[in-house]
Amino acid sequence: MIDEFDDALALANDPRLAPPRPAPRAEADPAWEAARATAHRAVAPLPPRRLPLDLALGHTLAAPLTALTDLPAFDTSAMDGWAVAGPGPWTLTCATGALAGAPAAGALTDGEAVPIATGARIPDGATAVLRAEHGSARAGRLTGATPQPGADVRARGQECRTGAELLPARTPLTPAALGLAAAAGYDQLAVRPRPRAEVLVLGDELLFRGLPHDGRIRDALGPMTGPWLTALGAQVLVTRRLGDDADALREALATSRADLIVTTGSTAKGPMDHLRGVLAALGAELLISGVAVRPGHPMLLAELPGGVPLVGLPGNPLAAVSGLLTLAEPLLRALADRPPVPERAAALTGPVTGHPRDTRLVPVETPDPGGARPLSYAGPAMLRGIAAASALAVIPPGGAEARQRVRLLDLPHP
Predict the structure, then answer these.
(1) GO MF annotations for this entry (predicted)?
(2) Is the peptide bond before 227 cis (omega within 30 degrees of 0)?
């Protein structure tokens, strides 16, 4: 038996009898998650710059925000009423009292009180604040129940001490964060600026006003792509409509001042799809030539000779959204040095048909945090589903069953 096995093995290994080798296959498109990782690694964070607080909204902290002062900077009153020293009743020492923004009233000794406004500095010697509704002043005398020591006093350093870290680096600057920076003593902040983006709309078949006619269709991507990039953290410089003019495209790419260029359409290899040829003529490096995702698999990522990344979105609307969230979103996060969004999952309320080999992105509603309802009108050229969706469900190859938990990509909102 062993001899028979050895004979069979030798026969199988005889190169003269081996079946012909299949022709080498073209390199497969990268998986969806691998493409997102490639996009994130393709760029370095933009250099930091200093901006005044009124221009810093939406940018990202380039360094930790540390307090330049104690907060509060001194003991202040939390209520309107009287600053009191010791137990009552008390003698009022000042008719005008302590006002917010004014120097502290004179020091108090036991049995003395002074009127005080919310936010005013607590006089030396005061032990508490008696609220206005809890006391009664008449003929220079104040009566009321003696408050507990420290009552309604915001103590110096209650929120933080000088040098304390208030926000870590990589924090996006919201209105509240800017208010905190102002309270902590800042006039300017070191930030990673919002990446500047330029949108180039390609395709002679597009109309920019009126109803479709004579084989031409309305441009849905021009009005959508810029606002979507803004919601993803970009500063959109301009949206330009170039048609299928290869020379105009070459000039636009060579003269752009953007940190990221996003094109719509022309990612395929049809007779009027000039994008790949123009990129090759300019000497751009094609980092991603397609992604194993539906819709949107013809999307591409290239690096222009000057180092500026270009994301090519397919011309179908939902396919373009897929490209924005697959390639543009991680690129913008890397440029702004923002941390990744925490992953979120939910259980599907119904089955979703999958692609045999590729990831599929499907618009869903999320009526409750744990559930995701697939929406209709989810074809590559459709926008009805995505317009009503709150997220895209990431469906693995082969599909997903009802109640199966899948990853969600929350859709940005300006």
Answers:
(1) metal ion binding; molybdopterin molybdotransferase activity
(2) no
pLDDT at 205: 67
Say what the pLDDT of residue 98 is.
Answer: 75
Q: Measured between alpha carbons, how far is residue 396 from residues 29, 278, 341, 409, 410 in Å?
A: 15, 34, 20, 14, 17
Residues linked to residue 49 through DSSP beta bridges, in sequence order: 191
Give the pLDDT of residue 26: 35
Asked whether residue 13 is assigned to any structural domain, the reply reads no
Residues 122 and 218 reside in one and the same domain: no
Expressed as residue numbers, the domain containing 322 is 194-336
Determine the Cα–Cα distance for residues 402 and 373; give it in Å rounded to an integer.
Answer: 10
Q: How many CB atoms lie within 10 A of CB 148?
A: 9
Read off the amino acid at residue 117: A
Do 144 and 239 share a structural domain? no
Distances from the Cα of 389 to the Cα of 214, 316, 351, 399, 405, angstroms:
32, 17, 17, 19, 18
* Span 276-308, pLDDT tens digits: 999 999 999 999 999 999 999 999 999 999 999
Same-domain check for residues 325 and 369: no
Contacts of 74 (CB under 8 A, 6+ apart): 104, 121, 122, 156
318-371 pLDDT, tens digit per residue, is 999 999 999 999 999 999 999 888 889 999 999 999 999 999 999 999 988 899
Query: Domain for residue 241, yes or no?
Result: yes
DSSP state of 57: T
Helices (H), 209-316: 221-231, 246-255, 275-282
Q: pTM of the predicted model, to two decimals?
A: 0.81
Helix (H) or strand (E) holding 138: strand 135-138
Q: Are residues 125 and 174 in the same domain?
A: no
Q: How many domains does the chain have?
A: 4
Summary mean pLDDT of the chain: 88
Confidence of residue 169 (pLDDT cuts 50, 70, 90): very high
Q: How far apart are CA 414 and CA 323, in angstroms?
A: 19
Q: Are residues 299 and 239 in the same domain?
A: yes
Assigned domain for 33 exists: no
d(CA 233, CA 20): 53
Beta strands in 174-292 (DSSP E): 188-192, 196-202, 206-207, 217-218, 235-243, 260-264, 285-288
Q: Are residues 94 and 112 in the same domain?
A: yes
Match 């709309």 to its residue by tokens: 201
Note the helical H segments in 258-390. Answer: 275-282, 317-323, 329-336, 384-388
The answer to whether residue 377 sits within a structural domain is yes
Q: What is the CATH number of the domain that holds 269?
A: 3.40.980.10
